[in-house]
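Workshop exercise sheet. Pairs work together: one partner reads the sequence aloud, the other fills in the structure field after running the prediction. Swap roles for the next sheet.
Pair: D.N. / O.F.
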Amino acid sequence: MADITYTTMAAVSETDKGGWPRVFNKGGTRIVQRTPTLGIKTPFYSDSTWNVSDTGYINDAEAVKFSGNNGLEHYESYKFGNNGSIFVPGRVLSGVQVESTQNSTAGHGIFLSRIGLIFRNDFNHEHFWGGATRNRPNTFNKQVYLQNIDQATRSALSAYVLDSLVIELSTKGGTGSRTTEVKIGGFKLLYSVGPSNMRWVVGAMRKREEAFGEGSIQLI
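Structure field:
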């Protein structure tokens, strides 16, 4: 029997200062339009194409930078897919957060407007949870966009594992034309799977269909 390498996290996410393992691939894939099946069901879509650079892991600080010149309201959505190393059950998630830092608070400046999560089950059926839309923050400081996941959603995801993170960027609001940028990173899942003095053991390098099997996720 082959050995399994384990990554451990705090049993309560808020107590873990180290964030979350690198569960998604570097870089992202542009989404033309996707409509959530859970949460806020307003579609995520793209009607513009902005420059993308610094394509690191999305859970690292300021991992990806988007920039462009805009004089109108535009949107662009990106998906960051699972790298096949860790598959997290949707039923345990109470929230998700992503950090953003923008270099402009003026009209038509790019900002992070929304986040969502895609889940899949053993039959490759998809559920897409959509978070709420927010307005452009009136600050240059790093902002934490946190969205809670309610019990009804967790119940609907009882047989699903996390597949992808989706973000939507926007230039909605204000007037004028300018070149701006926003940096996205700091992805983190929120959960509670046991006492805060215990560890959550997550099996690494397992097939997605084995995510619910013995040894994939357990407490010690």
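Discussion prompt: The chain has one helix and 16 strands. What would you look at next?
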